[in-house]
Structures are given as C-alpha cells and as structure tokens.
Amino acid sequence: MLALLCFSLLLIAVDATVLHIAVPALTAALEPSAVELLWIIDVYSLVVAPLLVTFGTLGDRYGKRRFVLAGYVVFGVASLAAAFSGGPLALILSRALLGVGGAMIMPATLSIIRQVFTDRRERAIALGVWSAVAAGGAALGPLVGGVLVEHFWWGAVFLINVPLLVVALPLAARLLPRAGGDPGHGWDVPSAALSTLGVLFLAFGLKELGHGGTVGTAPAVAIMIAGVGLLVWFTARQRRLARPFLDIGLFSERGFAIGVLCVLLAVFSLVGLQLMLAQYLQLVLGDSPLRAGARMLPLMIAAIAGGLCAAHLLQRFGLRATMTGGLALAGLALAPTLLWGAEQHPVMLCVCFAGIGFGVEVALLAASDTIMASAPESRAGGAAAIEETAYELGAGLGVAVLGTVTTIVYAPGVAAVPGVAPAAMGQARESLASAAHVAREVGGPAGDSLMDGARAAFVTALHSTILVSVALLAVTAITALVLLPRRPSRSPVPGPDRERIPL
C-alpha cells in the first residue's frame, strides 16, 4: 500500500516539472503565444493550489479511497488528452484537468498513510519514504522529460502516465482501505468557489499585464482586482465559519505567519526561475533536452541532501539561523548567474545549482518546522493544509509573475532583422522558443542574426528575473532574521506534512 501511495505521489511530483524541458519542442509544434505558453506551464499548479483543501475536505466527508480512484481516472484521461492536443487551448484545458486529478489524489495519499500506519514509529518511517519520493519526483521530472522528448515527441511526457495508471487503478481498488467518510463533515461550496476563482483571476490578470495579448491591459487590471477581492471575501468568510476551509486564525502566531511567508516567497522565487533556466540551457547554450535535464540534476540532488541535513542544522544552530542561512545561500548561489551570457560555465553551473537546491530545501524545512511548531496539535491539520497551499500557490504565481517579467524585458530587446517579415518578428518576440522556431523557418544569415539577437534579449530578461528572485530571497531572509526568535525549534525533526516539490 505504501508503494502504491508513493507511486501516486510520484506521478504528481514528476508532472509538476516534466514539461520544463519540453518547452522548445512544444513551442515548435503548437506555436503558442507567450501568454498561452505561460498558461500551459502554469495552469497545473494554479489549479492544484486552491483545490487541495477542497478535495481534502471532500475526502474526509465521502471517503479518501473514492477520491484516489476517481483521481486516477481523471489524471489518465487528462494525460491522454494532453498528449494529443492539437493546439495551445486544448493543452491548457488538459493541463487544468491534470491539476484536478492531482488535487484529488495528493491529500488522500497522506491521509491514508496516517490512517493505515497506526504505530507511531512505522508511521514516521512511512512519512519519511513519502517525503523522499516527493523530492525525488521533482528531481526526475526534467530528466524524464529530456529522455522522452529526445527519443519520442513532446506529447510522450504525458502519454507515459496512461499505461502506469492502467496498472495502478486495479491495484488501488484492491489495496486501499474501504473506510467510509464522515457525512457530517462540513463542506462549504462558496468557499471552494471563492478560493479557486480568486487564484485563477489573479494569475490571469498578472499574465495579461505582462503581455496584454488576450483581453488587453485595462480588462486585465479589472480581472486582477476582482481576484484580489474574491480572495479577501474568502478570507473574511473563513473567519465566520465554524469549520473553515483554511484556519485563518493560525496567522495570528508570528512564527506561523513568517514560516508561510518563507514558503510562499522562496517557492515563488525559484520555480519560475527553474523554467527560465531550462530554456537557457537548451536555447542559449545549445544543450539537447536530455543534456539539459541531466545538468539540472545537481539542483535536485542538493535539495534532497539539504532535506537530510536540515534537522541536524536546526538542532545545532536554531530556527532563525537555519532559515536565514538557507535563504542567504540560495541568493548567493544565484548571484554569479547575473554575469553569464551565451558562454559555457559547466563547473560554476553545477556549483550554483547545488547551492540553490541545498539552501532552498534547508530554508523550506526550517519553515515547515516553525509552521508545525507554532500550531497547537489540535490545529495541525489546518496548518499543514495552509502550508501545502502556500507551496502550490507560490509555484503557480512564481511562473506567472517571473514569466511576465521575462516577457516584458525580452520582447522589446528583439530588434527587427532585415529579411524577416514583420509578422514573423512579432512571433519571435513572443518567447525565445518562438524565436528559435521562426529562425529555423527563415534560415540563412537572417535566421542566424534573429537567433543571436533573441538569445541576447533572453539573457537580459533572465538577468532581470534573477534580480527579482534574489531580491525576494533577501527580503524573506531579513524578515526571518529580524522577526523569528533565537530559540531552537520545539520540533527537532520537521515532519513531511505537505507536498514537498519545491523545485
């Protein structure tokens, strides 16, 4: 049963990062606009984030086994649809449906582990395995994507899920416990609608402000304000409900609020940046998808190592030093990339990726520790739900905002090239992947000149994105240094009470 639940989590973790390496091939095939490409990458996390608490609550009410089985079906159908999408809109909708399936499965896996492993020591081991699989899935994502794109086509990154789920579905039906839910467990439909629509409206508004290609700037501002209003309404409603979706009252604890802020901003800073770095490796440095995936492995391996070391660092140095130090290390490791252009930096690339992965994971586990230590035991479930939501929301908004920053800086930097039609230049300004596609079609000296200018513009845009990420990491580190107490954490070993796929 543990193997089955961890396999379920592995699918969700891999799917969050597998598409990063496939962006150039996908762009060449479907020719999405910059906004459409951001939605293709981002909609998965943006759908998962608000639905985690919703489906967790529904699982408590109607039975977790039902939601795992239904999630398998939804995930499989969505994977099949995504693999054979004929255009950007079809792929966006399929990715959104994948997010629905992932949100149905993920909370139930952790709940069933807690239900099945009644012995405390066995449960701790099971949760440790569950947590390691989550981190390992993020590490495997780019590499799996690289292998599949290299030897098949971009749709294979989705199609591979289908045969795996065909095998897993009958096993899950046989092995998972049949315990029913609690029909008396409350479920507030308006809260579910407010949280989901609020996040999606906010993200869409942010994307449109950066590009303005779908509805225009003024409507985008109105949509973004509407999203903020819905989230404010959602927050106010949670304060009034006897059994809220999210326990907003936990934010009155300073340590809890800072921990959630650290999770949100750290993941925000780095998930979007990982997408840009994957494109940098392939389209600026010229790596194949497989090589790009392999070159990003030091970041993931270092993240796993940071997770293993974090408990010892917390015991030795205390909460404030561990969190601040992890964030500072991540920011310092990012800094050398501001000097990079189109030249190769194989050793420094590995060192920087390792520093980023180790620092971020140490800081995130320290944040998890202060979140769970600040919440009383009776409210631990609500604290874990908020932390999970902060992870997914940070990932979704990170791709949206940092992708928007990249677009704002990149597009004006691509100068017109003699011999390239204005319509083709407009397409090239959508993204670096689009520019590579246009350059291949144009060919000759004009195509080479276009690609050189697009690479230079993308490097400038990447530097701007890195500056934003470093600034956010610095602000979070200073906040932790000033506001967190010196005393060591009350919980020496951070528990994996959340989905740990930060990168």
Automatic annotation (TrEMBL):
Position of the signal peptide: none
Subcellular location: Cell membrane
Transmembrane segments: 37-55, 67-86, 92-113, 125-145, 151-173, 185-206, 218-236, 256-276, 296-314, 321-340, 346-368, 389-411, 461-484
Keywords: Cell membrane, Membrane, Transmembrane, Transmembrane helix, Transport
Record-linked InterPro entries: MFS, MFS_dom, MFS_trans_sf
Species this protein is from: Sphaerisporangium rhizosphaerae
Pfam family, one: MFS_1
Predominant place of localization: membrane
Membrane topology: Multi-pass membrane protein
Domain Major facilitator superfamily (MFS) profile residue range list: 1-488
Protein name in UniProt: MFS transporter
